[in-house]
Amino acid sequence: MNRVAKALNIKYPIVQGPLAWLTDAKLVAAVANAGGIGNLGPAAGQNERVADPDPVVQHAATVERMRQQVRRVKELTTGPFAVNIIPENGGNDGHTRPLIQMMIEENVPAVVYTGSEVYPEIFKLLKDHNIKIIYRALNPTAANARAAEKNGSDVIVATGFDEGGTLPAKVVGTFSIVRMIVDAVDHTPVLATGGITDRRSVKAAMALGAESVFCGSLFIASKENRAAGKVKRAIVDSSADDLLLFRTMPAYYRSLPGPFANHLQELSDQGTSREKSGEEMGGLYGLKLGMVDGDWDHGYVSLGTGITSIHRIRPVQEIITDLFTDE
User: Fold this and answer.
1) Is 200 exposed, middle or buried (0-12, 13-18, 19+ CB in 10 A)?
2) Element (H, E) at 135
3) What is the enclosing helix (H) or strand (E) of 15?
4) Residue 207 burial (CB < 10 Å; 0-12/13-18/19+)?
5) What predicted TM-score, i.e. pTM, was given to this entire model?
6) Any stretches that span the bilayer, and where are they (predicted)?
7) pLDDT digits (tens, 9 = 90+) for 220-260
8) Where are the domains of the chain?
């Protein structure tokens, strides 16, 4: 049996990426019911920003919204799923520990730990409560992969520059990163992410030593995803040739063209600082405007280079079965 599938108790070795605003209980449950492991992203099921100026109130609201999403997932599936965390400052950032406490209370089976820094205390807290750890460094290195293995990560994600969303600071392609991370660890299975959207890319990743894949853009074009219809149609009608690449915080982003994305590209071409571009971009809320609301005048459409191989809007079940079934 595939080691990732065994470790995460799933049929197919595939993990759905967090996708920020583009996840909700419906998508996550669909992935679980199709045999993979779904993942509730940072703004899962959320429709508006939490406007309260008190960060404690904001964090509490975020945790309770996530709790409701977790409970809804459990109503829709009996399969395993994950919640995404992004620990900072040793996990003492106001939201990581309350979120983990909620996961403990609600018996969430797995976590996607997103962040280059490995905090042993956070790993131990998760392991002590039998929460499976899917570790994904924003900037993957041999060193942080080994640190994750040392502290008990169940699987490690090798993230290449081909991905969508927040891109790594170093421009290193997925297949180069996969080889490096596979060779860096001794016994922990590795997942490949970045440009994985069809059976050929899955096989290629596994030929390089990955034992699973971690997919984001592929699931945006699913029937169950909450992305606007115009975004899904644009994915099907576009290829990697159409994507813009611009400098912003923390490093780079990609987007399909549109009035706002074109503006961000112009800022980057003009040498505008990453900090200034980041302010203009509006962070992940710009993704919500562009991809959930379909407002390309004020938001962007972040995707990975693998969209070239996405030709139809399909149910999650069909997407996953097709990735792992030989003709």
Assistant:
1) exposed
2) strand 132-136
3) strand 14-16
4) exposed
5) 0.95
6) none
7) 999 999 999 999 999 999 999 999 999 999 999 999 999 99
8) 3-226+310-324, 244-302
